[in-house]
Structure formats: structure tokens, C-alpha cells
Amino acid sequence: MAIIRVLLLAFSVGVFTFLLYRLIQIGKTSNRNKGVILAAGVLLLILPAVMLLGFVRPSWHYLLLYPVAIALFLYLIKSQ
Fold this sequence. Notes:
80% helix
């Protein structure tokens, strides 16, 4: 379980910076769906911290689904 936490933390550090940058860019635009996009982005940013605090148990499912969720989110906001 400790190795899963280390891997998720290393992945999250790189993604956190990029997501924060994109969310700031989207916050400055006048998009109709800005609120939904910002809420989903903030949820994706908070989720690793919640896992590290112990509210969500680390598992292989989380390890596989979180990168897919991040990739899907980045694909959806690519044109924003």
C-alpha cells in the first residue's frame, strides 16, 4: 500500500501544476460551462489529498481510474 501512495503522489505533483494552470485559464474565459468545468477540476485536485489523508482507501482501481479521469478531463478542456 505504501508504494501505491508514493506513485500517486509523484503522479499528482506533475498533474496538479498543469491542472491548476488550466483552471486559472478557464476561470478567465467567458465560457457558459465554466462552473461545471471548475468544479470537476477542483474535485480532481482534491481527490489525491483526500486519499493521502486516509478518507479514501488506496487501491488498484483508484490507481488505474485516476489517470484516466485526468486524461479525459484534459481532453475535454483542451479546446477551452
